[in-house]
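[job 4471] stage=fold_predict status=RUNNING
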Amino acid sequence: MAVSAGPTRELRMAKKRYTPEQIVAKIREADVELARGQTTPQVCKKLGVSEQTHYRWRRVYRGLRLEKVKRLKALERENTRLKKLVADQAIDIAILKEVSSGKY
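[job 4471] inference complete, writing structure tokens
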């Protein structure tokens, strides 16, 4: 992983984005390693993720099959798009009310 220096010049790890498919594969790999008796910190180090990330992924993706993960991500994108659409409509309505009341 690359190392980047922030505005305070401290060193930190660069963030890496994983696809849902990669996350599911890493969770399954972690399950196998945990079943073999390794500890969670050992497994996380082997996978190259923090324990916090491991537990978050487990909470969100555990028990999901790959096609359901893809569907979940698609629904999240759709939800984001619809929220933006509603926000834009709310702004348009507010503008129209202001114009119609003569306060412009």
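[job 4471] summary: The CA atoms of residues 18 and 26 lie 10 Å apart.
[job 4471] exit 0
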